């Protein structure tokens, strides 16, 4: 599945001033993942379980020992997550990259969307320091200086381990029919049926459905609904310009009832409840996955 870069999928991680990134221990809690990108470089190191990242034109299969780099102008989404998926996720602000990546071989980490495949598997010997440093960053608590120092050390250590691991087999390119279907569904899909999308992609509906599910972790209908919800969120905003009904219809939903059912299934609550939560946001920081 190819995710073409779109400025509309930019999210803010809301990092406090002076904080140059974060590291967290991710465990799959069953939350739905959406296509996004952010201005920070992202690192993922898998501890257990399995999943897959769709990042630009690449698919990165995730199993224990996999280390993946995701870049600022690279739309990505975590899919096919096993219930026991567990990994370290870290992000690094551009200022930290500029300070730490001074050599020719590390400058690629400062790029917005470099060419190539950025997943390798680490041996236990190479992996051990990454887990230790991530644990130290968490232990730093509210000490900004210790956290920033730890993030710089993590960045350089992880890149050295990645280089030492050597290039593995590239699984990056996925089925061209899936790429075409994704591009169609991410555009204006109003009035376009699944059979029409399959015909445009050059496969039967059953064949496209099988390949799409295998490579993205979602059915065609699930992916279409995710895209419509993302369009709804952009159109509705804070509710100052459009009603929910107008935004839902313009996003591609056939009726408010269809929108309501999809929204409740994907978000776990009714649209009105979600709006109330946004008006009274929690203190939790935005998650990235």
DSSP strand count: 8
What is the element string, with H for helices and E for strands?
Answer: EEEEEEEHEHHHHHHHHH
User: Overall mean pLDDT score?
Assistant: 84
At the third CATH level, what is the topology name of the largest domain? Answer: Jelly Rolls
Which term fits the overall shape?
globular
Largest sheet: 5 strands, antiparallel
Number of helices: 10
Q: Strand order, main sheet: write it out.
A: 1-7-2-5-8
What name goes with the CATH superfamily of the largest domain? Answer: Regulatory protein AraC
CATH-scheme architecture of the largest domain: Sandwich
Terminal-residue CA separation: 17 Å
Low-confidence stretches: 1-5, 281-287
Quaternary structure annotation: single chain
Rg, Cα atoms, Å: 20 Å
Q: What share of the residues lie within helices?
A: 40-55%
InterPro entries: AraC-bd, AraC_XylS_family_regulators, Homeodomain-like_sf, HTH_AraC, RmlC-like_jellyroll, RmlC_Cupin_sf
Protein name: AraC family transcriptional regulator
GO molecular function: DNA-binding transcription factor activity; sequence-specific DNA binding
Organism: Capsulimonas corticalis
């Amino acid at each position: 599945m190819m995710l073409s870069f779109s400025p509309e999928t930019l999210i803010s991680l809301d990092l406090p001033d002076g904080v140059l990134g974060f590291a967290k221990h991710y465990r799959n809690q069953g939350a739905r993942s959406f296509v996004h990108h952010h201005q920070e470089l992202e690192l993922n190191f898998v501890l257990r379980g399995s999943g897959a990242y769709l990042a630009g034109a690449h698919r990165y299969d995730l199993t224990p020992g996999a280390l993946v780099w995701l870049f600022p102008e690279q739309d990505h989404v975590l899919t096919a997550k096993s219930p026991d998926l567990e990994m370290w996720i870290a992000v690094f602000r551009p200022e930290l990259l500029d300070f730490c990546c001074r050599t020719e071989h590390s400058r690629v980490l400062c790029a917005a969307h470099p060419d190539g495949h950025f997943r390798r598997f680490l041996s236990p010997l190479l992996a051990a320091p990454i887990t230790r440093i991530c644990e130290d960053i968490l232990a730093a608590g509210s000490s900004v200086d210790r956290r920033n120092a730890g993030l710089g050390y993590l960045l350089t250590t992880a890149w050295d381990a990645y280089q030492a691991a050597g290039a593995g087999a590239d699984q990056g390119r996925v089925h061209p029919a899936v790429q075409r279907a994704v591009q169609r569904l991410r555009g204006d899909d109003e009035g376009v049926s699944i059979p029409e999308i399959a015909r445009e992609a050059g496969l039967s509906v059953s064949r496209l459905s099988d390949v799409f599910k295998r490579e993205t972790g979602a059915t065609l209908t699930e992916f279409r609904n995710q895209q419509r919800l993302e369009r709804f969120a952009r159109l509705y905003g804070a509710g100052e310009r459009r009603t929910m009904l107008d935004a839902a219809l313009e996003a591609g939903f056939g009726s408010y009832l269809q929108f309501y059912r999809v929204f409740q299934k994907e978000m776990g609550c009714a649209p009105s409840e979600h709006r109330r939560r946004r008006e009274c946001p929690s203190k939790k920081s935005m998650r990235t996955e």
